Sequence to fold (159 residues):
Amino acid sequence: MRSCVNILLLIFFVNALPAWAEPEEINKKGCRDCHRFSLKEKQLNKGPDLFYSGDKFHKNWLRKFLQSPALIHEMNFSSGLDFLEGKSEKKQLHIALTKGEAERIVSFLVKLRLPTLEAGKVTEESLSKGERARVKILFERNLGCISCHRALNLVGKVR
Fold:
């Protein structure tokens, strides 16, 4: 009986392994040159960290982005004080992937999650006027999100 259970468990794990395995495109396309897939990897400051992409991105958006990349952050990155001399690196567009490549990578990325993140904190309810003001202050001043992400100002123009 015990050996029967062990065989069934082995078959299950062998069949489930490809779903959790990293797709070969990650290395072939040089994804690790810009992105981290684990918190233990050295921070690169070139592209966003992807070790929590299952918590960060919507699957459909990610699939579309990988097939037809667009510039998201209009910022430059500088690894030193060379930005004072105007020598900062310009952002490059992400490489475009085929539909199959994008599907395999997205299937892998959406499984990468932070175990400590509390799920269900975001609701569909609209924020009150006071809550919107607090979020705006956090976004623009306290957390500095505005340095990379675009937002609308009070008159509805992108800043």
